[in-house]
Specification:
- This protein is mainly alpha-helical.
- Helix content is 86%, strand content 0%.
- It starts with a helix and ends with a helix.
Length: 146
């Protein structure tokens, strides 16, 4: 079951990433991505894995130490759980970035590579997006005060 959940997790998020990257201006994309519920499928995978491995997960996170956490994450169950966590969180962050960028008028060709990086390494994608957001927000401020 762990292997199936691991393999399924990213597939549950792919349609949302595809909409944000390939069809960012499509009205349907904006409607779909407006819902925070898009993160529910990978979050549910996380929940199933967390419940199935609760004693091990609790031991690893209740008193975090590098050795025990590495040991748990080094198991198939821990890896699948971590993967589901990454996918759900990355999608949540990507959704926020997409919505911010649309509201600030960031061009989709600027956002596409940032969102691709976010899929692979969301902290780096976020670090790339924050200056873009700050620049666009600064440009938009005078228009907002009128």
């Amino acid at each position: 079951m762990t292997e199936v959940l691991f393999s399924t997790t990213f597939l549950l998020a792919v349609p949302f990433w595809a909409l944000m990257i390939l069809a960012p201006r499509w009205r349907t994309t904006e409607k779909v991505i407006a819902s925070p519920l898009i993160v529910v499928p990978p979050a549910l995978v996380y929940l199933v894995l967390a419940v199935a491995n609760l004693p091990e997960l609790w031991a690893a996170v209740s008193a975090p130490a590098l050795g025990p956490l590495a040991e748990f994450l080094g198991t198939p169950e821990g890896t699948a759980l971590g993967w589901a966590h990454f996918i759900a969180w990355d999608l949540f962050v990507g959704r926020w970035m997409y919505r911010q960028s649309r509201g600030l008028g960031v061009h989709p060709l600027v956002m596409a590579p940032i969102l691709l990086v976010t899929i692979l390494a969301s902290p780096i994608g976020l670090l790339l997006f924050l200056p873009v957001r700050a620049l666009r927000a600064r440009r938009a401020e005078p228009a907002l005060t009128v």
